[in-house]
Amino acid sequence: MLLIRIATFLGVLLIALFAFAQFIRRTGMFFPSPYPQGDWRTTSLPVKPIDETFATPDGVTLHAWLFRATSTNAPLLIWFHGNGGNLTDRAEVASELAHRGISTFVFDWRGYGRSGGSPTESKLYIDALAAYDFATSHLDANPESIVLYGESLGGPYAAYTASKRKARCVIIENSLPSLRALGNALYPIPLGWFAPFAMTTTRWLNQANIPVLVMHGKRDTIIPFRLGRELFDGLRGPKELFVSERAGHEEIPVVEGTRYYDAVVRFAGRR
User: Fold this and answer.
1) pLDDT value at 18 more than 60
2) Is 234 helix (H, G, I), strand (E, B) or coil?
3) Structural domains counted in the chain
4) Which of 5, 100, 236, 257 has the greatest number of CB atoms lying within 10 Å of its CB?
5) How would you class 51 by CB atoms within 10 Å of its CB: exposed for 0-12, middle for 13-18, buried for 19 or more?
């Protein structure tokens, strides 16, 4: 009888933990800022954006800004941004990259900025591939010139795209090796074990087998630095590690300034 009670308790506990983990995945992962939230003024930017829109295979219209570098053979960086804000929060960095010779295409996930729809973990994979396909079909981007840039929660989606499409290289900023690793790191109970096959950034990058630059700040309290290191250590292909001693989450461009831009431009332009 005691064994039955223990088994029943453990079963109920596992079900409760599983339900809690799924609740967090549905409600605690995306924090979009829909239009008009954000600073949509672009007059002060060194390179002004071009408005672009494109449709996903499931019929959602997404909005993007294209920052064109002056060089006709410039690489095109596709920016998969994180789970908060919208593309206006990335505009200053994207414009500066274009000013330094890297064309940058930053799009908003569904539910963010001027994009339609509502974000979910699975739907953003559709958005990621749609952004890439639009770049190659409408922006005249050669796959050999495409740089996939994954910021924070955008990292797994950039990695997924790299496993499905051709690209020159991938840059991962303050991101995670997998959702399982993140869940186990953030909670005293290892909730990550309830998402064993979700957002497997390391696995997808290894499948792509192209050069990867991993960038992470040691003061990151959202995605701890040790997860960035775990991601880097798990990569089997060509790789580089950029460490910021002072930057927190998504702070590397601001904190590191020229050092950040030089690293991205050099890596994106490598042959």
Assistant:
1) no
2) helix
3) 1
4) 100
5) exposed
